[in-house]
User: What shape does this take?
Amino acid sequence: MDLHERMAALDARIAARASALNQRRPADVGAVPAPATSATGQGAVAGHDDATGDKAFSPVDGVTDAAGLTRLSGFSFGKLFSEVFRHHSDEETEDYFSGGYPSTTPQPETLSGSWPAPWIFTRCLFAALLVYAALDFGVGKFGNLNLIPGMVVIGSFAVPVATLLFFMEMNVWRNVSLFQTLRVFFFGGVLSLLLVLFGFDSSLGRWLDNSMGASCAGVIEEIGKLAALAFLARSSRYDRLLNGLLLGAAVGAGFAAFESSGYAFCALLSSGDAALSACRYNIILRGVLSPFGHVVWTAMAGAALWRAKNGGRIAASSFFKWKFLRLFSVPVLMHMLWNSDWNPPYMLKYLLIGIIDWIVVLAIVQEGLEEVRAVCCEGARTVRSADLVAKGSTKVFGSMLAGVFAFCAVIALTGFIFALGWQLCARLFACIN
Assistant: This one.
């Protein structure tokens, strides 16, 4: 290499370095001038020369760009699941589930804003699968039909609830209690199912069904779940982006659990001698696919709504903002593709949809963590003064006791609604026959 070639290569490296500094430097600070090209005419083009070291465009970036989110950076699956295989005591689990009440919500300045390392969801999933396996064994070994309802309920609820707990752990604010999460889970699941049934029964729903087929569920069901979420979480108390992600996941998990229970029950009624095998297949298949479906779709819809309302109360104008429509279109389109007639081998369709779903979810979590860091740095929000925490465990116990009673009331009311609906359906079928 002669002297001119060496000088040209040096100029190219200097130009690339200056371009990188200009991109990182704030706008109000003077830019670093890039040197002119050498006499040989060889220069560096910013963003296009390999010498710049700029990150190449990837499909992951394409997904986040299409959803209007910040590109993922500094993320590691190893760090995210680093606590899964470590030992954790029962006290740690109990301490986590005691959070979210007014006296147990951590102060914003104590939060780090770094990526959390969830682990509780795996413990709950493993416990639920053990219970399901025991019930399944009892049904198969002894033929006891009394175990089938428990097998259906546990099998249908296990994965959706475990996925919901993952989103609960990702909410680093820890300002949404377990009671509030379960309240939205039960009421949101039932309310969204009813709204979806009304949607399918409407003239618009019938028109969509005739024109789009099964893919119309992507429009009707996502709008129904979003409406249930907007009604149940309309309070401005939970105004953070990660709160919207969690509450949306709660509605989606409730919808998925009740829907899967219904499919398993119908399989028992309509499959003849193979009824039990069909029920098991339905439970296992929908359980495996559950983390890629309703839970994450409604979580994305909730995050889209929370981004649009921007810390305020939910208003009609929130549903017409471009930032909402852009992100909300992702779960709608993914749901439509899920129900479409396109069926590549080896369930590749569901794998592709699941990858896109979780890329968007992780990008939303990243944006939520940026919000945590911004609040911590600015000191803009105070949840409770520290002396409330020091007043002892009496208020904590009282809040948890009230939450238990309220949770029991929610379950009783839900059971009453289902029993009433069952009776109405039975009478309707009797009249028809």
Notes: The chain has three domains: 3-54, 77-382, 392-433.
